[in-house]
């Protein structure tokens, strides 16, 4: 009798954590993990690559370097569609593979919200390639000023003021003074504008803590336009609405960080989804599909206390991966699954290399250097969770200095 086949789609935080934990449990099953790249990357650090403060190699590592390949098989391929009726997954290059149990952890994509010109005229930050493209574009336009004397080469518009936006702004405001010296452009002429549709900035933090972070960025020269929804992105121009009037912000670098959605594969496969996410049952399985788990950025886990889904963070994705591995082991042993439980350990945002803000361990607030130090500690913990000690020593953040 053949062993049950467990297929995991995606090697992000949730998928790779599931695979690693399953291998540790010595389950009697064939484990296969599929990912379009042969590497895992720390998506919470993409802003550093995009700003040019860290190379892509610092935030990524090969999947097979941390996977027990005696117990699990890695396939580098792109998932096209899940066929729930046949229990197969269509891959772009290698055809179809069969599963007895499926773990869907396909990750996120940029969300345009139907705003015209986003894909054509702005730079998203959703993976290594887009982050590297954003860095190359920024460096090119800044360097071009010496020849062009066009101040739009020194103008940057960041669309959105969420986590990624704020952390990106923190990195570029740290880096630009250094670039000004090497590329010979006037740092005082650099114009950075952040446009946000919501009426408040950093609402996930207490007001005073969030304001501290915003004040740091303002002192570094960032101009915030709040309560100003973006209506269109034209070449080198962001059109936004302010007090009922359409206005424009011109720049040769336009960064799009307004929102993300779950993978389009979820909708293409016929799941009941909203923005690429599926509301899952308490044990993280999909209603009507007892052999399919949905985790990470493609799942919506309801917080009973608030009546709203939890934010899709690396923290919850890692916890989901461990829970799914536990429940798969139970199913293989004909035992009932257990509900997924989650209690956030806090939220921390970096504002460049040596400054951060956070609320951790309940209501304890940190800011400045301590916020930065805790952020780096969180990165290191993640590298241990999805990687190993060797990866931590090579890729970890041990630059705990002012």
Q: What key phrases describe this protein's structure?
A:
five-stranded parallel β-sheet; 402 residues; alpha/beta; 10 helices
The stretches of 5 or more residues where confidence is low (pLDDT under 50) are none
Strand content: 25-35%
Largest beta-sheet details: 6 strands, mixed
| Measured distance between first and last alpha carbons | 60 Å
What does this protein look like?
The protein has helices at 13-24, 46-51, 118-121, 128-148, 163-183, 207-219, 264-268, 314-332, 369-386, 389-395; strands at 5-9, 30-35, 39-41, 60-62, 72-76, 79-83, 88-91, 95-98, 101-104, 108-110, 123-124, 155-159, 191-196, 222-226, 230-234, 237-242, 245-250, 253-256, 260-262, 278-279, 285-286, 289-294, 299-300, 302-303, 308-309, 346-350, 356-360, 364-368. Helix 1 packs parallel to helix 8 (314-332) and helix 9 (369-386) packs antiparallel against helix 10. The model has no long low-confidence stretch (mean pLDDT 94). The chain has 402 residues and is of the alpha/beta class. A six-stranded mixed sheet has the order 5-2-1-9-22-21, covered by helices on one side. A hairpin with a 4-residue loop joins strand 24 and strand 25 (308-309). The protein is built from ten helices and 28 strands.
